């Protein structure tokens, strides 16, 4: 029976091949030195191979391999099992081991803060580090408590992981305080620019960075409704107030912040648009809050661009791209979590693979898409194929470059019968030990390699990922796009596409987007999946399909309007409206399985056409009606 850690027999030749455990065990057992030797088995327990360890763990202390080889433990050898749980371990195994239970809640996040503060650049000074510690003790417990009690996460996280994510974001913004590497003579490098910053200015910078990092760590894992709640809570907290019910989680003496508060509105076209704490970025140089909208690069769509290649910049893409680049530049793994259609893969691929973000002169991107059938060997082959051998046992990209491995659909691999996900355990081994074991049972150290991942919320075919892997990542939830943002994205694309069309058709761009948005919002909120209708799942890709469908009609195919009767209704505009109805029916109507749902959708379509196009559905589809018929229904649509 194949048993990979110990070894396995070739199915064709029955030749025995040692596994990693057998090779390591034999190497330690044959070592004649009197030094203490520890064999650490880090990973989930498998009920098959762990049973082979029973003879090692009892008084015999011998490893019996399936090929009849027996390896005795030396007196200086000891074994440690580091596992997440013992759900599939037998009592025979458990009774042979001493148990030490470590709970993350008992340890907490403060030891991480202490070690992180000690590792910060010396040029910050002890006063600034103490100020950071005070800020964490003030706001972090309350924010973690609010997040656990009031918000719903897209993917489960640990308190220590969120606190560590906050520390990483702050550290990424302190490049001016990092001392340059020393010269070849062994002396110290030049003083960093931040070494001469006034203490008051330094305190203001750290306060702004802390608030920004706190928003994008403890408040970055929830959905849209959760962000609205966190915005209200955070504004009260940042203003020095005490949110209701959280007095016990705040210190008696709260720090007085010198950084300006995050604005709650933005002057736009003479009106004040409400803003949340997620809509601003902290500018350390000016110690001010800058709207994400001001950081966007103006869009210039090239002529002849395909629909799939157009990416309209929004505040969502601006902030997610900024956080992605910040993590990549500072060697921090990042995980984007969000429902299908929120742009996770598009944002990462655009930044990594298109050449618009990272320069190919210094970066080597490698994309890996996981599925339910992906095995650990398949994943290992794909990643190893992008790396070169630098020296014995050391692998990496070309010298002078860094490899970014983008793992898409991280939680898609199916779980084994014992609950483990081998591809993800392989990634966790890389995160923990900066490498993994090859097929030759030799450890492959991987340098200048880091991970970026994306996945949908757990559920359905997507499994829950072990926290032992997720703790390595900064988790960033990509929330559903707001209606205003959707209207801006597809309105911009349609206006660009309709430039060569007749004026009556050009004027329809806003109405077409508004009609699509109304139909999409109604269908996604009312037509919910049930066991009999499990495919009633609507996402932003359905919205895009409608817009893409109406863009496929060339202007030359539209009927010509009579220039002698300019006041007559435009035949071209009527044809384009009819085309929109056709595409909406193909995307939404064709997915419905019973007459009740179809009649309901037709009713919604009638109201939307009347409101947005100033006509009726029966007038647009009048060519489907017979002489005695007055209303378009399911029978007419089948013609």
Structure summarized in a few sentences:
The chain has 639 residues and is of the alpha/beta class. 39% of the residues lie in helices and 13% in strands.
Strand tally: 19
- The structural class is alpha/beta
| β-strand amount | 5-15%
Strand order of the largest sheet: 12-15-18-11-19
For this structure, the quaternary state is single chain
Global outline:
globular
Q: What is the average of the pLDDT values? A: 88
Residues in helix, %? 25-40%
What is the CA-CA span between the terminal residues?
Answer: 61 Å
- Main sheet specs: 5 strands, parallel
Low-confidence stretches: none
Rg (C-alpha, Å):
30 Å
Helix tally equals 22
Keywords:
five-stranded parallel β-sheet; 639 residues; 39% helix; alpha/beta; single chain
Structural description of this entry:
- The chain has 639 residues and is of the alpha/beta class.
- It has 22 helices and 19 strands.
- The strands form seven sheets. The protein has a five-stranded parallel sheet, with helices on both faces.
- The radius of gyration is 30 Å and the shape is globular.
- The N and C termini lie far apart (61 Å).
- The model has no long low-confidence stretch (mean pLDDT 88).
């Amino acid at each position: 029976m194949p048993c990979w850690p110990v070894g396995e027999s070739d199915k064709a030749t029955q030749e025995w091949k040692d596994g990693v455990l057998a090779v390591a065990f034999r190497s330690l057992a044959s070592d004649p030195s009197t030094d203490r030797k520890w064999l650490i088995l880090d990973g989930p327990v498998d009920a098959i191979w762990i049973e082979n360890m029973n003879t090692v763990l009892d008084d015999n202390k011998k490893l019996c391999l399936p090929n009849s080889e027996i390896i005795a433990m030396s007196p200086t050898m000891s074994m440690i099992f580091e596992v997440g749980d013992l759900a599939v371990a037998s009592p025979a195994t458990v009774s042979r081991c001493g148990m030490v239970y470590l709970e993350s809640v008992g340890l907490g996040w403060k030891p991480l803060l202490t070690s992180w503060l000690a590792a910060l650049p010396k040029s910050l000074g002890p006063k600034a580090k103490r100020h950071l510690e005070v800020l964490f003790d003030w706001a972090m417990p309350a924010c973690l408590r609010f997040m656990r009690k009031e918000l719903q996460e897209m993917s489960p996280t640990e308190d220590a992981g969120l606190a560590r994510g906050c520390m990483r974001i702050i550290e990424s913004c302190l490049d001016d305080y990092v001392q340059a590497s020393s010269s070849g003579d062994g002396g110290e490098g030049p003083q960093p620019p931040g070494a001469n910053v006034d203490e008051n200015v330094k305190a203001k910078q750290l306060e702004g960075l802390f608030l920004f990092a706190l928003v994008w760590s403890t408040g970055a894992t929830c959905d849209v409704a959760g962000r609205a709640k966190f915005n209200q809570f955070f504004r009260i907290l940042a203003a020095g107030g005490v949110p209701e019910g959280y007095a016990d989680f705040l210190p008696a003496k709260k720090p007085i912040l010198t950084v300006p508060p995050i604005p709650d509105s933005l002057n736009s076209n003479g009106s004040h648009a409400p803003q949340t704490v997620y809509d601003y970025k902290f500018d350390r140089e000016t110690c001010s809050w800058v709207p994400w909208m001001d950081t966007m690069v103006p869009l210039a769509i090239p002529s002849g661009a395909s629909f799939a290649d157009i990416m309209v910049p929004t505040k969502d893409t601006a902030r997610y791209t900024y956080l992605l680049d910040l993590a990549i530049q500072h060697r921090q793994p990042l995980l984007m979590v969000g429902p299908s259609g929120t742009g996770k893969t598009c944002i990462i691929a655009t930044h990594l693979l298109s050449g618009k973000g990272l320069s190919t002169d210094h970066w080597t991107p490698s994309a890996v898409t996981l599925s339910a059938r992906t095995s650990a060997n398949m994943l290992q082959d794909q990643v190893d194929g992008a790396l070169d051998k630098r020296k014995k046992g050391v692998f990496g990209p070309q010298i002078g470059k860094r490899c970014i491995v983008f793992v898409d659909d991280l939680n898609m691999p199916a779980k084994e019968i014992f609950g483990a996900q081998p591809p993800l355990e392989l990634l966790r081994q890389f995160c923990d030990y900066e490498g993994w074991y090859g097929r030759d049972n030799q450890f492959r150290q991987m340098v200048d390699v880091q991970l970026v991942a994306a996945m949908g919320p757990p559920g359905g075919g997507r499994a829950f990922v072990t926290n032992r892997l997720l703790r390595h990542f900064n988790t960033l939830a990509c929330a559903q796009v707001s209606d205003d943002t959707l209207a801006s994205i597809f309105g911009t694309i349609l206006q660009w596409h309709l430039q060569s069309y007749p004026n009556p058709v050009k004027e329809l761009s806003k109405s077409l987007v508004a009609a699509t948005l109304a139909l999409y919002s109604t269908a996604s909120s009312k037509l919910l999946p049930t066991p009999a209708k499990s495919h009633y799942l609507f996402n932003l890709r359905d919205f895009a399909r409608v817009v893409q469908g109406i863009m496929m009609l060339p202007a030359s195919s539209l009927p010509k309007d009579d220039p002698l009767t300019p006041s007559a209704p435009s035949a071209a505009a009527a044809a384009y409206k009819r085309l929109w109805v056709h595409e909406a029916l193909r995307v939404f109507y064709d997915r419905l399985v019973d007459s009740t749902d179809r009649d309901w959708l037709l009713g919604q379509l009638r109201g939307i056409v009347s409101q947005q196009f100033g006509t009726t559905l029966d007038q647009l589809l009048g060519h489907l009606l017979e002489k005695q018929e007055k209303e378009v229904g399911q029978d007419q649509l089948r013609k």
